[in-house]
Amino acid sequence: MTRITIYKTKSGEYRKFVCDGHAGYADRGEDIVCAAISALVINTVNSLEEIAKEPTRVEADEKAGRISCFFLRQPLQASSRVLMDSLALGLSNIVAQYGKKHCKLTFEEV
């Protein structure tokens, strides 16, 4: 199962997100759930860095299937908030379509 946790402040400001694990929907290389999650997460990280120029610290362990993105400036720019809202929407849709057996999305207050 892939677990994604998005960390926000009480006032709703994004602080970081962590994506951990493999979906296990299908065999390696054919897992459409894992591919969809990976595409959303990697595209968001790349867009934050290259389009929004948001300062981040990204830690990744490909073998473990873990990526963490920490936001180094607070509050985020409006464009970065939109990118994060889009990530949350896309992940929510994957959870709704494929069920909580393969993907779990949680929001934690920090």
Offer a concise description of the structure.
36% of the residues lie in helices and 30% in strands. It has two helices and five strands.
Task: Please state the oligomeric state of the protein chains shown.
Answer: single chain
Return the structural class.
alpha+beta
Query: Separation of termini?
Result: 24 Å
Biggest β-sheet strands, sense, barrel: 5 strands, mixed
Mean pLDDT, rounded to whole units? Answer: 95
The poorly predicted ranges are none
Order of strands in the sheet with most strands: 3-4-2-1-5
> Into which percent range does the helicity of residues fall?
25-40%
Instruction: Using the alpha-carbon principal axes, give the shape.
Output: globular
Order of helices and strands: EEHEEHE
Number of helices: 2
Count of beta strands: 5
- Tell me what portion of residues adopts beta-strand conformation: 25-35%
Based on CA atoms alone, the radius of gyration comes out at 13 Å
Topology:
Blueprint: E1 2-8, E2 14-20, H1 32-50, E3 56-61, E4 66-71, H2 78-98, E5 103-109
Parallel strand pairs: 1-5
Antiparallel strand pairs: 1-2, 2-4, 3-4
Helix pairs in contact: 1-2
Overview of this structure, please?
This protein has 110 residues and is of the alpha+beta class. Helices cover 36% and strands 30% of the residues. Strands 3-4-2-1-5 form a five-stranded mixed sheet, with helices on one face. The mean pLDDT is 95. It contains two helices and five strands. The longest helix has 21 residues, at 78-98. The protein has helices at residues 32-50, 78-98; strands at residues 2-8, 14-20, 56-61, 66-71, 103-109. A hairpin with a 4-residue loop joins strand 3 and strand 4.
